[in-house]
Amino acid sequence: MKHWICEKVKDFLIDDATLRAKALQKKIKERYKVHIHYKRVYMGRIFALNQLYGDRDRSFDNLYRLKAQIESSSPGSIVNIDHYTINGKIRLRRMFFVLKPCLDGFLNGYRPYLAVESTFFIGRFKGQLATASLREAIGCPRGLAIHTDPGQAVMTGVGEVFPEAEKRECMFHLVNNFKKQHRGKVFDDHLWAAAYSCNPYLFEKHWNAMEKEKLAATNYLRQFHTRLWTRSQFSPFCKVDYVTNNLAECLNNWLKHYKSLNLDDLMDKIRQLLMIKRKLAKKWDGRVLPHIIKKLNEQSRELSLEVDECSEEVEVMAMGGSGFRFVVNLEERTCSRRKWQVCRCLACTAVLVSELDCFPVNVRICPLHMRPAGTRRTGCSPLPPMAPTSSSAAPGSLLCSPRMLGSAVHP
User: Fold this and answer.
1) For position 390, what pLDDT does the model report?
2) Spatial distance between the Cα atoms of 380 and 377, rounded to a whole number of angstroms
3) Containing domain of residue 206, as a range?
4) Could you tell me the pTM of the whole model?
5) pLDDT for position 214
6) Which of 35, 44, 279, 354 has the maximum number of C-beta atoms within 10 A of its C-beta?
7) Considering only CA atoms, which of 50, 64, 100 is closest in space to residue 267?
8) Do residue 121 and residue 231 come from a single domain?
């Protein structure tokens, strides 16, 4: 029976290796019109995964072979394997690796911003794929900003590893936690608006509206959400204005179909996916990112702004009697709204200012989001292919799986 189930579920597992025994049991019943006991499906699933991806227990020992191949094919990459010994057996505790082209691209070509989160493995051995072990690889660049979810363990760990960095909190998770305690139209209108406000005056306007409605709500934010979550408090050095941790969520979504693979296969799959991303990044042409050009084209239609120029400064005022006014200085690259300082993009203001002939072309193009000069030189350099791990020499001692806590029962 185990062999029959193994053959039937292989096709399902090839398409999605994260399918659990309960889902496979349902698929077998739908396709073959037979009901099989859960435990039999579970054992057949384990047998099929072993045939498709190799023995899970032996896969931990292959991590040393993977380490040797990565360091050989991409010199300068960092691969650390931490282990401990119990009853004479060497067991894996954690693993961290970063590829050399990715490291060079971050240090030399990109803005100092990190999105940190943990994604849980799915399978027999539980664990997390964390991205907080970066201090050894990147140090602490000037102006580094780190975005995390509002979890005490993650935020505390980031604070200990990167005490000098700017700590940001994901606004999406903050709002979800906030709505469990406080609800109302005033919060729907002003909470997200306060997060997106680059100017402290506008932030205070939304904050006071919420505080006037319910003082306990703002006291809750002061007490339990002490990290930065509004653009008005972001440092002007980083030039990244994200208020959510969507970059980390994108990584989780990127890997969701591979999280039940053996650990060595998962690490190799991540390396292969990065190779594809680097290939796509090399196709970029020009200095201005395509989505910024699209955004500027959309916002340049039917603008209700009045522009007055004076030497290197430009005064922009909203038409229609609202009285909203802000000053743009192209030489110093500043804006009284702090939009330019926080995210290096003036949006609709840049469209109007770029039409003024009194400024050189290189100054007029500065407000836009540009691709950093180092992206093609370092960040987009291709990752070299890697030989199979079986060609590497075996380590001197056998690395075993982590010790499983609790009783060894099937999920």
Assistant:
1) 57
2) 7
3) 172-240
4) 0.72
5) 92
6) 44
7) 64
8) no
Please identify which residue in the block is written with the tokens 């919420």: 210
CA dihedral 37, 266, 387, 54 (to 10 degrees): -20
Question: Does 369 map to a domain?
Answer: no
Rounded distance between C-alpha atoms, residue 163 and residue 324, angstroms:
39
With b meaning 16 or more CB within 10 Å and e meaning fewer, what string describes 319-337?
Answer: eeeeeeebebebeeebbbb
Burial class (CB in 10 A: 0-12, 13-18, 19+), 85: exposed
Contact 26, 264 (CB under 8 A): no
Question: Does residue 295 lie within any of the structural domains?
Answer: yes
Measured distance CA(119)–CA(247) in Å, rounded:
13
* DSSP letter, residue 396: S
Question: What DSSP designation does 227 have?
Answer: S
Find the largest Cα–Cα distance for the chain: 84
Regarding whether 134 and 59 lie in a shared domain, the answer is yes
State the pLDDT at residue 397: 55
Pair (45, 74) in one structural domain: no
356 in the same domain as 278? no
Neighbours of 123 (CB within 10 A): 19
- Structure tokens that stand for 405 in this block: 């806590």
Who's near 114: CB < 8 A, 6+ residues apart? 131, 134, 144, 145, 146, 147
Of 112, 203, 207, give the one whose Cα is nearest residue 165: 112
| 166 and 64 within one domain | yes
**SS3 letters for 231-293?**
HHHCCCCCCCCCCCCHHHHHHHHHHCCCCCCCHHHHHHHHHHHHHHHHHHHCCCCCCECHHHH
Average pLDDT per run of 10 along the chain, which is 411 residues long?
Answer: 85 82 90 89 86 78 85 86 83 82 81 77 56 65 84 76 88 91 92 92 93 93 91 88 86 79 82 77 69 71 61 54 63 74 60 43 36 44 62 59 48 36
